[in-house]
């Protein structure tokens, strides 16, 4: 034990890891509870999107979310990403960064919890800062994962509660995505924030879209995202978000580029 983080014993073998994590999750492993930054036993609310996809919402998963927001916001090396769209690089309306799960006690505990709960090793952590209500993310699916038949995306949301919109993907993709998020009659709207954990599972990335529309708020919101894919089924070969869009005969350019804000 160090820095308030439960740590896998060095002698733990691969075959024993799952049992150790289960013990940590259930409390069977001796952990200093005063060092815990998450509520491992918070209730899980399940929403079935269809027979293949689901959403879990865990309210209050990070009890001291205000302190976590301040710490993550001030210590993260935020970057402004620009995406190639129609021959020009367009700044995203948000800041982002990639973090190591072992770089912070809170991130490490979340990582352990997700591994123990879902019995899978996640990749992460992708951090996004919405500085105020003018920052947003359009409807999309995380198709960069490629294998979308069975995936998990876990998002811990710190700060302002804002609509998290989920919409069924339809054959007429262009029409579906042009309807503003949260305004279609069949949109599902969750409002995670203040330390909640939201998990999208199953075929959610294959059959559904999600996004964060603009909101009337001056307060920040940070999402911390972990991902996992089974790598089973037929891979999605369509261009991903970071592939950019270029239609001229000019030499191919990177789909994204970053700069300090």
Radius of gyration: 19 Å
What CATH calls the topology is Jelly Rolls
- Unreliably modeled segments: 1-15
Question: How many helical elements?
Answer: 5
The CATH class turns out to be: Mainly Beta
Number of strands: 14
Order of helices and strands: HEEHEEEHEEEEHEEHEEE
InterPro entries: AlkB-like, AlkB-like_sf, ALKBH3, Oxoglu/Fe-dep_dioxygenase_dom
Domain Fe2OG dioxygenase: 121-230
GO molecular function: dioxygenase activity
Region (Disordered): 230-261
Structure description:
The protein contains 5 helices and 14 strands. With 261 residues, it is of the alpha+beta class. It has one domain: Jelly Rolls (Sandwich). The strands form 3 sheets. Strands 1-2-11-8-13-6-5 form a 7-stranded antiparallel beta sheet. The protein has a 4-stranded antiparallel beta sheet with strand order 7-12-9-10. A 3-stranded antiparallel beta sheet has the order 4-3-14, with no helix packed on it. Strand 1 (44-48) and strand 2 form a beta hairpin. The longest helix is centred in the middle third of the chain and has 14 residues, at 105-118. The protein is globular.
């Amino acid at each position: 034990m160090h820095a308030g983080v439960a740590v896998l014993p060095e002698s733990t073998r691969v075959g024993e890891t799952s049992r150790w994590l289960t013990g940590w999750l259930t409390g069977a492993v001796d952990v200093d509870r005063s060092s815990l930054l998450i509520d491992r036993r918070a209730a899980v609310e399940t929403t079935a999107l269809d027979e293949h996809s689901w959403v879990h919402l865990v309210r209050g998963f990070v009890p001291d979310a205000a302190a976590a927001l301040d710490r993550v916001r001030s210590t993260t090396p935020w970057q402004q990403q620009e995406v190639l769209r129609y021959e020009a690089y367009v700044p995203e309306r948000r800041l982002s960064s990639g973090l190591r799960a072992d770089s912070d006690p809170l991130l490490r505990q979340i990582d352990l919890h997700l591994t123990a709960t879902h019995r899978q090793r996640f990749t992460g952590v992708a951090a996004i800062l919405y500085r105020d209500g003018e920052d947003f993310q359009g409807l999309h699916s995380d198709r960069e994962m490629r294998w979308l038949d069975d995936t998990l995306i876990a998002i811990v949301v710190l700060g302002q509660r804002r609509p998290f919109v989920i919409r069924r993907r339809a054959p007429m993709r262009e029409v579906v995505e042009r309807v503003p998020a949260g305004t279609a009659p069949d949109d599902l709207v969750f409002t995670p924030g203040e330390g909640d954990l939201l998990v999208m599972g199953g075929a959610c990335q294959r059959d559904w879209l999600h996004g964060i529309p603009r909101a009337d708020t001056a307060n920040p919101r940070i999402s911390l995202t972990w991902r996992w894919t089974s790598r089973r089924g037929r891979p999605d070969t369509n261009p991903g978000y970071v592939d950019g869009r270029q239609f001229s005969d000019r030499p191919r350019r990177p789909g994204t580029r970053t700069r300090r804000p």
